[in-house]
Automatic annotation (TrEMBL):
<protein>
    <submittedName>
        <fullName>YqzH family protein</fullName>
    </submittedName>
</protein>
<dbReference type="InterPro" id="IPR025546">
    <property type="entry name" value="YqzH"/>
</dbReference>
<dbReference type="Pfam" id="PF14164">
    <property type="entry name" value="YqzH"/>
</dbReference>
Length: 68
């Protein structure tokens, strides 16, 4: 899956949680970790769950919850 495509969707979801218009409020390491988690979960659950996976991973990150 195209990482840039996923990053665009990550930015859109992060915007809903942070109301930031200037990009991801993340370090490069955090962004890469989120990207890797999203790709892994999409591989596990299938592309049809794409949006749900992104929302779940981002929500978990911002609420500081443990992964399932």
């Amino acid at each position: 899956m195209n990482k840039q495509f996923i990053k665009v969707h990550m930015q859109n979801v992060i915007h809903t949680y942070t109301d930031q218009h200037f990009g991801l409020p993340l370090t490069e390491k955090e962004e890469q970790e989120l990207l890797n988690k999203i790709i892994l979960k999409i591989d596990e659950s299938g592309i049809e769950q794409f949006q749900d996976v992104i929302h779940d991973v981002i929500y978990t990150f911002f609420t500081d919850q443990e992964d399932e």
